[in-house]
Amino acid sequence: MTARLYRDACGIPHVRADSWLELAEAQGRVTARDRGDQIQLEHLRTEGRLAARLGAAGVPWDVFARQARLADTARAAYDALARDDQEWVASYVGGVNAVLPEARWPDWAPLGVLHVAHVLFSDLPGLLWREHVLRSLGRTHGEDVVDLFQSDAGGSGSNAWAVHGSRTRSGLPLLAGDPHRVIEIPGVYQQVRLACPGTDVVGLAFPGVPGIAHFGHAGSVAWGITNAMAHHVDVFRERLRGTTDGGVEAYGPAGWEPAAWGTERVEVRGGASLEVPWVETSRGVVVAGLDALPAYGTERAAYSVRFPARAGADLGIAALRQLLRARCADDVATAFARWVDPVNRVLVADRDGTTLSLTAGRVPDTGAAARRLPRDAWSDGAAGVAWQAMPPARRVDDHAVDANERPDDPERSFGYAYAAPYRAERIRRRLAALEDEPVGVEEMASIHGDTVSLGADALLRHLPDAHDDALTPAARALAARLRGWDRDMTADSEDAGAYAAWRSALVQKVAALPALAPLHAPHGMGDVYAPWMDVRARVGDGLLDLLDGLGPAASLGVDAAALARDALDDVAAQPPEPWGERHRLDPVHVLAGVPDASFADVAAAALSGDTDTVRATASTPGVSDRCWRGSVARWVWDLADRDASRWGVPFGAAGAPHSPHATDQLETWLDAGTTPVVTAWEALSEEALA
Length: 690
Known about the structure:
The chain has 3 domains: about 10-120 and about 165-230 and about 315-450 and about 630-690, CATH 3.60.20.10; about 125-150 and about 455-485 and about 495-575, no CATH class; about 235-305, Penicillin G acylase, beta-roll domain, CATH 2.30.120. It has 21 helices and 28 strands. The chain has a 10-stranded mixed β-sheet with strand order 20-18-17-10-9-8-7-2-1-28, with helices on one face. Strands 11, 12, 13, 14, 15, 16 and 19 form a 7-stranded mixed β-sheet that branches. Strand 1 and strand 2 form a beta hairpin.
């Protein structure tokens, strides 16, 4: 083996090889060394074998994984790959198995890891939630209340922005952004450099997946993505019945039809194993409402989903190898034309000055109604699917911003529920404020740390009048303070802390209204969907609409003025508390519950920012102000000089807690900072790759 491994001061691996396959094998080796425990757990997720390691805590995921046929989808997608793509993936697996022989990964394993990373990034949970609202409140209040609990009024996602070279000091474009996911330790992204004849790319990889997917800089071209919030899965209400021979039928547009079915055994550490039933109709896999197969003579209602990856036996991994070869913006656009799931907005720029904005992924052409609620499996058109053509890439001549907001152009709007426009608007304002002077990397990096909440302005419209005689003196004083507050969610701000406390109190009071009591009843969809079915979290998403009391909200009888006044009285009676006392880092420990596993102990540091600020440190108002979701990486790509670019992750490059690089980037991340990209080979330290 002639591949060589180098590291920079942050321990980030720089892999150099003589061929594509050798490079893939070496990436597998270094990933197994740096993130071995993490990627083995991800493979267990694919196969639905978490509970065998974690015990009962892993059962909800295992049930979902078996019923969603995750491993089977990965196998089928691998089998459908072209031979050169198969060899590339298999070489990566060979590297993993060389370091972790006990893992015994099959060649399709990386496709499973990629599938796990995105399978619930779809609007499947949202569709099931809206179905629960319809079933719970529809008869009383009318179907329109389904739309009151949307993330348009809040929510977190990702940021990305591009600045054309006409506005930069170098005369070449700048790209920047930060993806927002659950903050996990070890981190969800792996900083890496991959180089061989024909490619030299730095970027963020998924541990366990070859190549560099969403964020990369190849010297002559760079790219970054955000979630397009598209409707890319169709969900169906299914009628299932047992047959005389012990099989299962599903009711489709042409009547009763045979369905594939089976049971699988899930082993549970420290507990009894369980049999998990699965059913797949001609529309998709049944992923909710199936706790048992229907016996002969009985029917069962359930929900199926048509995942693009399963429908087409394609997880889009072929795009990743093609991205490594990209040399210009058009190359990146061509590579992303092969992307499948989820649908992304892509910003790309090259050293010729071309800057593009495009949408990548596979969207079913099934109409607006399918984006709102599940469809009846027996309805017209449910039997087949056509995929929408993506619009052509647009050239960016000044700047472009993507932050999961609803697009202005209807032809680029493929979703139903989007994130609030606050982050996008704040980034645009920051860029507009820089119009008089050419900008560079430093100005882009400063935007990462912006903590002004435009969402606070919207909610503070419901603040009680400071002269309201029904308020206590302390509440009147607090109302006056909040009206004069600068809306900056800094950790040391008592006003920000008071605002957040008032917001949480409001959410709790609205969620406890008798009109919403049916939503608290068991939803029956499955335990894996619990985070999306929390009524308090959903009320937080739709809080503004619920308080405004217009349209369908009026039928719920929300007395916004009284609730706002009571919430303010509650907060005013408490001692003042800076936002950072309430808002602290609370990452998910990926290996928690794994026997004999160890992981870095991270202090619950105070955080600036909020769910709807550019510096995304999301919490769940009404549930907890602890931060569990936010920026899982930050990046600034300079097309004039790759070594002037910057990047960072929340913790570090290593997964092992004893490594000096397990948490050495934490302090920088807490300051919303980044570290330099270093690519000069002579500035790196070589180590053995064996």
